């Protein structure tokens, strides 16, 4: 990809929304502009809400027992098709299907399917549980076949999906991205947040003196993004320019924000830097504004850090007052509403608060009536469990065009550096019968047998790798991830982790996550009622707990998220880390995957067609860095990532998927052929961890690779039974990371 393409703006050409106020933009926007609130009875919860609680439910959703149209799939498809229609995409797509990537964000994905299983004991219900299944069903019939993944950063998931999409477009990994967020209304979420005492029985009143908590809602929103030159060639007028994004982690607490607002402030400052804008140029802030006492106070502190004395001049709107908190859908739902506010040049009022009730002097909260305004720039903020923060800055197309015309010919930081080389500097492996890199290598040299002769791991054998006192309540999956990461950081030669961590983020993968905690929590809710929900189990069972706890325990302050629900999730994480570092969005990331052994997982997979499967517990972690980061630390690398790619394929037999995945990297004619190495016969029950085990094997001892390819390259491939395939090509050995070569290759 040349520098001109790299600097080409990313634009939104289509958007769709479904929420408590309607199933299209034409229904939702007028109600929002009038200040209406969509909170009402919750008829679709699997069990009646306690004490007459209500929330933001979509009113015209399919019947809850219509399995052929699972609620989350049917409503997500509505938003998706509205976005595609607005983008002018019908039967004829503007680019090849494999150049269209799909990234969805969610907090709980297909969790309602788990409730159906618990009540029926029908393992077939769990076919719809994994987010990869939701994704495939939502995209059924569409020719978009590029990299497809689902990310979880809790309530920041929706904006995180957009940020990942911008990364892919800037780096050149695709020509179009369908990004979005969703979460259905569910007893699992309602009981969990109620157990944390953050759900109010009254109205949600963000930033008010008497605010007592949030209302839960559901939301589904999708945006179609492409580079501006592609939209121009299609004669499609952009709705907005995605001018910048920023992500951060608080590294403070699993369920409480950092009181100072420092983490959220860093995400906003990063987004503004990325957009090349000063804070006072923002015309509207779309606040996260959950109406919980601690969150709103921390959020206001963050705004003060960014805007200082200029904050009273910036209008603020709290869309959750209209819709409730739509969890993983919130980021993209509210982004679409900001886009509509910019289109109509109107700031909607916050629905449930009047000016006299605002607790925070200097917060310009728009209330009572809509306000006409000259909106050129909007900023959306989302904050999630584990201190995940994400921010997106939108520009009105006319304003962005004027800026580019004014800046033409001026020197600019953005788009003037070549795509960075990306290296893997550290590896940590933790498997049954192979605790640590040396033990793992010995197993491989002995023929690889016995890696999963016993799928369980005894915690006593690896507890020395993390601070056991702090980790005593963590799920097995999280402890495995912590242990593997500790080994990877040591292997990378990080002498001072406390200095390394603040500038480091994480992209992790998990097919199933903390299944033990999640199952125990949900069984109690289903059998005893929502009032029996255990808050500790709920918090530790949210799918992004891997990245959240990693950031908390190690002090990682870069963006942190977990890719969930597919057997390819670990390799998807490595692929997206490659693209993010190559594009210059960050310098270093922890990449990894972890799975814990589960009898329920085994039973479900055996029922669905894997009769011999034995699930395993284990984890692999990698330290992934840019050439600049590696050079600054004066370190050699274990290998370099040469290329990465992914596909959403038609489901079929395993051999067909394998053949299709073999071709993923062959479209790049500049790449030499690579050897293929596979341990899958030993790792069928390791799910997302398996392809990273193969990656580790290739990096730790290249001599183990059979059929050594030209240039000492090896490709690692992963497929999922639902039709997902991912490939990463590695340059093996430390010679690929010559420090002198690095110093000469980097151009800023």
Task: Give structural attributes.
21-stranded mixed beta sheet, about 750 residues, globular, Peroxisomal Thiolase, Chain A, domain 1, two-stranded antiparallel ribbon, disordered C terminus, 25 helices, 23 strands, alpha/beta
Descriptive account of the structure:
There is one protein chain. With 748 residues, the protein is α/β, with parallel strands linked by helices. The chain folds into 2 domains: 3-407, Peroxisomal Thiolase, Chain A, domain 1 (3-Layer(aba) Sandwich); 422-740, 3-Layer(aba) Sandwich (Peroxisomal Thiolase, Chain A, domain 1). It has 25 helices and 23 strands. It has a 21-stranded mixed beta sheet that branches. Strands 9-11 form a two-stranded antiparallel ribbon. Strand 7, helix 10 (293-307) and strand 8 form a beta-alpha-beta unit. The chain is globular and about 75 Å long.
Q: What structural class should be given to the helix and strand makeup?
A: alpha/beta
In CATH's first tier, which class of the largest domain applies? Alpha Beta
User: Per DSSP, what share of the residues sits in E-state strands of 2 or more residues?
Assistant: 15-25%
Question: What is the number of beta strands?
Answer: 23
Q: Percentage of helical residues?
A: 25-40%
The low-confidence parts are 408-417, 667-672, 735-748
Could you state the CATH homologous superfamily of the largest domain?
A: Thiolase/Chalcone synthase
In the CATH hierarchy, the third-tier topology of the largest domain is known as Peroxisomal Thiolase, Chain A, domain 1
Number of helices: 25
**Gyration radius, in Å:** 24 Å
- Residue-averaged pLDDT, rounded? 88
Categorize the overall geometry: globular
Largest sheet: 21 strands, mixed
Q: How many domain modules? A: 2
